[in-house]
Amino acid sequence: MIVSTTEIFRHAYGRYAVGAYNFNNLEQLLGLFRGNLGKTRENDEPVIPEKAAPFIVQLIPGALEYSDPQFIQGMLQAAEEIFPDAIYSIHLDHGTEEDCYACIASGIYRSVMVDASYSPLEENIAVTRRVVERAHEKGITVEAELGEIGGQETEREGKVLLTHPDQAAEFVERTGCDSLAVAIGTSHGAFKFTGASVLHWERLQEIQRALPPRFPLVLHGASAVPQEWIARINAAGGAMRNAKGCNEEEYFLAARYGVCKINIDTDGRLVWYGTHREFFRDCPQEFDLRGPGKNFMEQYARSIQHKSAMLGSAGEWKSFREELLQTASI
Length: 330
Hints:
Elements: H1 5-12, E1 18-22, H2 26-36, E2 55-59, H3 61-66, H4 69-82, E3 88-95, H5 97-106, E4 111-114, H6 121-137, E5 141-146, H7 165-175, E6 179-182, H8 201-210, E7 217-219, H9 227-235, H10 251-256, E8 259-264, H11 266-282, H12 290-311, H13 316-329
Parallel strand pairs: 1-2, 1-8, 2-3, 3-4, 4-5, 5-6, 6-7, 7-8
Helix pairs in contact: 2-12, 5-6, 7-8, 9-11, 11-12
């Protein structure tokens, strides 16, 4: 069941955060849906509602360029038919103004993120406002970003400029955006911190207080970079020394302060990297691409189940579904 991010955030606010997962190919999409339904393999019976979680499927423009937007749309439409019990939304991540307009016109996205955060404030406001006006005409919600989050998606490695609470309030009022990605010390990629993980929780609380009640906040660059996977990758011939991410134990704390959506991309890439390296190390005679693909999908589904538990979204499928059905019957 595809729903709007507004519905997801309304259900999640202050209670749990929803995982927003980037995907680029079929294997990632299958692992993502299976994991959020409590499955690990194709023939598993889903564990509903004990572990099932609402979630957000999202794409960056690079994923659309990797194949073709029509391929992506076809996979998403197939997933809707194959996994009718899933509760999720479809979102564009880190789009330009032009990217957002293309996705709004496609008819498949329920929300878009316009990222003009590296522009001067007035330009960021103007760009975001134009996207909001176009999106709202189609019933599509808009995520924007204020402050700078460094890393690979943004090509501004290591640069982090914290979001100012007063600017956040002005930005939301003037743009009409539906959710806001804020900078509190996270960064994109697998090398987020040189020392201990330091996130500015007091700044997040100040931003929450400055915005309208129950306004949804978003954390980008919040992958945990699990050390288990770093060790497995390096043991299989990788070279990912000193990779470090966010503390998953803090996801719940972020949810208390109004964070409804937490973006997770790097951790999925690490599972891909690790499972493929291990497969070809252990099975050098194999040349069937489906072997490592099957391994990845199962391991990724398990990773998604772990993320749902840490986000607090595991098991929320049931109450969310009941709420949606009740609303539909009114």
